[in-house]
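USER: Please consider what follows.
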Amino acid sequence: MIVCVCRRVSDHRIREAVREGAQTFEALQRELGVATQCGRCAECACQVLREAQQALASEEEALACLQS
């Protein structure tokens, strides 16, 4: 889904940015331009960021279990 209409940023792109190292909302703003124009997407972008961080942490935890 498109999260930021102004910059045409999707939830998939936000998740990809998190996998690439974006850890804060400010990093998303800097890297993707999310919520830098009208700002209406800020809440949704933050939610997608949190979900992506949780998913990444779960993946890393699962990999650590497999490696031990």
Residues 52 and 58 are 10 Å apart (CA to CA).
